Amino acid sequence: MTTASTWGEALNCLIPVSHTDSSLVPEEIHQKRGPFQGITERHGFKNYPKEWRRFTLSPQPFAKPFDFSVE
Q1: Is residue 10 helix, strand or coil?
Q2: What are the beta bridge partners of residue 57?
Q3: Residue 2 pLDDT greater than 60, yes or no
C-alpha cells in the first residue's frame, strides 16, 4: 500500500516538500522517488521541479493542442 510516508507527502500536494530537490524530506524518500524519476526521464519526460511526480513529454509530439468536441 502506498501512503504519504512512502513518498514523503500526500498526493496532489503542491507545497515545498513536494519539490523535486526539496531538502525537507529525508534522503530515504529521495531514494524511493529516484527510480520513478529516472525511468520517466529516460523515456523522454521532463520533470516539473515544483512537484516531483509531475512530468511533461518533451518535446511534445504535437505542436498545437487539440481543440475539438467529444460526443
Answers
A1: coil
A2: 45
A3: no
